[in-house]
Amino acid sequence: MPTLPPAMSTPFSPGYDRRLSVSLVQHGAVMVAHVTGELDPSTVPVLREHLEPLWRRDDLTAVVLDAAGLTFCDSVGVSALIGALKQCQAAGKHLLLSAVHGTLARFLTITGLRRAFEIHDSAAEAVQAASRTAGEA
Protein backbone atom coordinates (compact mmCIF):
# COMPACT_ATOMS: atom_id res chain seq x y z
CA MET A 1 0.00 0.00 0.00
CA PRO A 2 1.41 3.43 -0.89
CA THR A 3 2.37 5.72 1.94
CA LEU A 4 0.11 8.65 2.63
CA PRO A 5 1.34 12.18 3.22
CA PRO A 6 1.12 13.30 6.85
CA ALA A 7 -2.48 13.51 8.05
CA MET A 8 -1.93 16.96 9.51
CA SER A 9 0.73 19.60 9.13
CA THR A 10 3.07 19.56 12.07
CA PRO A 11 5.67 22.08 13.23
CA PHE A 12 8.24 19.81 11.56
CA SER A 13 6.54 19.78 8.12
CA PRO A 14 8.08 21.84 5.32
CA GLY A 15 6.04 24.97 4.74
CA TYR A 16 4.25 24.59 8.06
CA ASP A 17 1.94 27.45 8.97
CA ARG A 18 -0.31 27.28 12.02
CA ARG A 19 -3.06 29.09 10.14
CA LEU A 20 -3.77 26.14 7.80
CA SER A 21 -4.00 22.42 8.39
CA VAL A 22 -4.92 19.65 6.01
CA SER A 23 -6.08 16.21 7.09
CA LEU A 24 -6.46 13.42 4.56
CA VAL A 25 -9.05 10.67 4.83
CA GLN A 26 -9.36 7.99 2.15
CA HIS A 27 -12.74 6.55 1.14
CA GLY A 28 -11.99 3.79 -1.35
CA ALA A 29 -10.66 5.47 -4.50
CA VAL A 30 -11.55 8.94 -3.21
CA MET A 31 -9.29 11.03 -0.97
CA VAL A 32 -10.88 13.80 1.09
CA ALA A 33 -8.61 16.69 2.04
CA HIS A 34 -10.21 18.52 4.98
CA VAL A 35 -8.78 22.05 4.87
CA THR A 36 -8.96 24.10 8.07
CA GLY A 37 -7.86 27.70 8.55
CA GLU A 38 -6.76 30.43 6.15
CA LEU A 39 -5.68 29.88 2.55
CA ASP A 40 -3.43 32.76 1.47
CA PRO A 41 0.11 33.31 0.11
CA SER A 42 1.79 32.10 3.29
CA THR A 43 -0.30 28.91 3.61
CA VAL A 44 -0.68 27.78 -0.01
CA PRO A 45 2.57 25.73 0.27
CA VAL A 46 0.96 23.67 3.06
CA LEU A 47 -1.97 22.79 0.79
CA ARG A 48 0.33 21.94 -2.13
CA GLU A 49 2.52 19.78 0.13
CA HIS A 50 -0.48 17.58 0.88
CA LEU A 51 -2.08 17.55 -2.57
CA GLU A 52 0.86 17.03 -4.92
CA PRO A 53 1.58 13.42 -3.85
CA LEU A 54 -2.08 12.55 -4.49
CA TRP A 55 -1.81 13.22 -8.23
CA ARG A 56 0.68 10.34 -8.50
CA ARG A 57 -1.49 7.84 -6.61
CA ASP A 58 -2.77 5.11 -8.94
CA ASP A 59 -5.31 3.95 -6.35
CA LEU A 60 -7.19 7.27 -6.41
CA THR A 61 -9.75 8.39 -8.98
CA ALA A 62 -10.88 11.57 -7.23
CA VAL A 63 -9.90 14.16 -4.64
CA VAL A 64 -12.42 16.13 -2.59
CA LEU A 65 -11.27 19.43 -1.12
CA ASP A 66 -13.52 19.95 1.90
CA ALA A 67 -13.69 23.67 2.66
CA ALA A 68 -15.97 23.36 5.71
CA GLY A 69 -13.14 24.49 8.01
CA LEU A 70 -11.78 27.17 5.70
CA THR A 71 -12.06 30.54 7.43
CA PHE A 72 -10.49 32.69 4.70
CA CYS A 73 -9.38 32.37 1.09
CA ASP A 74 -7.87 35.17 -1.01
CA SER A 75 -7.04 35.35 -4.71
CA VAL A 76 -3.77 33.45 -4.20
CA GLY A 77 -5.71 30.66 -2.51
CA VAL A 78 -8.20 30.56 -5.38
CA SER A 79 -5.28 30.45 -7.81
CA ALA A 80 -3.92 27.43 -5.90
CA LEU A 81 -7.32 25.72 -6.25
CA ILE A 82 -7.29 26.38 -10.00
CA GLY A 83 -3.77 24.92 -10.13
CA ALA A 84 -4.98 21.87 -8.20
CA LEU A 85 -7.86 21.45 -10.66
CA LYS A 86 -5.44 21.53 -13.60
CA GLN A 87 -3.02 19.09 -11.94
CA CYS A 88 -5.85 16.75 -11.03
CA GLN A 89 -7.18 16.76 -14.59
CA ALA A 90 -3.68 16.22 -16.01
CA ALA A 91 -3.34 13.18 -13.74
CA GLY A 92 -6.67 11.80 -14.98
CA LYS A 93 -8.40 12.36 -11.66
CA HIS A 94 -11.56 14.21 -10.68
CA LEU A 95 -11.43 17.21 -8.29
CA LEU A 96 -14.51 18.15 -6.30
CA LEU A 97 -15.05 20.90 -3.74
CA SER A 98 -17.36 20.58 -0.74
CA ALA A 99 -18.84 22.93 1.85
CA VAL A 100 -17.74 26.05 -0.05
CA HIS A 101 -18.77 29.13 1.92
CA GLY A 102 -17.71 32.65 2.95
CA THR A 103 -15.07 34.49 0.95
CA LEU A 104 -14.32 31.47 -1.23
CA ALA A 105 -17.97 31.10 -2.28
CA ARG A 106 -18.21 34.82 -3.01
CA PHE A 107 -14.95 34.84 -4.97
CA LEU A 108 -15.93 31.82 -7.09
CA THR A 109 -19.38 33.30 -7.79
CA ILE A 110 -18.21 36.83 -8.65
CA THR A 111 -15.46 35.60 -10.97
CA GLY A 112 -17.60 32.93 -12.63
CA LEU A 113 -15.15 30.26 -11.51
CA ARG A 114 -17.94 28.42 -9.68
CA ARG A 115 -18.75 26.75 -13.02
CA ALA A 116 -15.18 25.42 -13.31
CA PHE A 117 -15.52 23.29 -10.17
CA GLU A 118 -17.91 20.53 -9.21
CA ILE A 119 -19.19 21.73 -5.82
CA HIS A 120 -21.20 19.76 -3.26
CA ASP A 121 -22.80 20.77 0.03
CA SER A 122 -20.81 18.26 2.09
CA ALA A 123 -17.77 16.02 1.84
CA ALA A 124 -20.05 12.97 2.14
CA GLU A 125 -22.09 14.10 -0.89
CA ALA A 126 -18.90 14.76 -2.86
CA VAL A 127 -17.52 11.30 -2.01
CA GLN A 128 -20.78 9.69 -3.13
CA ALA A 129 -20.75 11.65 -6.41
CA ALA A 130 -17.09 10.82 -7.06
CA SER A 131 -17.69 7.15 -6.26
CA ARG A 132 -20.64 7.03 -8.69
CA THR A 133 -18.54 8.70 -11.39
CA ALA A 134 -15.67 6.24 -10.82
CA GLY A 135 -18.14 3.33 -11.04
CA GLU A 136 -19.38 4.59 -14.42
CA ALA A 137 -15.88 4.86 -15.89
Please give a quick description of this structure.
Helices cover 38% and strands 28% of the residues.
Per CATH, the class reads: Alpha Beta
Number of helices: 4
Shape: globular
The CATH homology group name: STAS domain
Number of domains: 1
Key features?
4 helices, Anti-sigma factor antagonist, alpha/beta, 137 residues, Transcription Regulator spoIIAA
Commentary on this structure:
It comes from Planomonospora venezuelensis. This is Anti-sigma factor antagonist. Residues 20-130 form the STAS domain. It is a single chain. Helix content is 38%, strand content 28%. It has 137 residues and is α/β, with parallel strands linked by helices. The chain has one domain (20-136): Transcription Regulator spoIIAA (2-Layer Sandwich). A 5-stranded mixed beta sheet has the order 1-2-3-4-5, sandwiched between helices. Helix 1 runs parallel beside helix 2 (75-90). Residues 1-13 have low confidence and may be disordered.
Summarize the helices and strands and which ones pair or pack.
Blueprint: E1 20-27, E2 30-39, H1 44-55, E3 62-73, H2 75-90, E4 94-98, H3 102-111, E5 118-120, H4 123-136
Parallel strand pairs: 2-3, 3-4, 4-5
Antiparallel strand pairs: 1-2
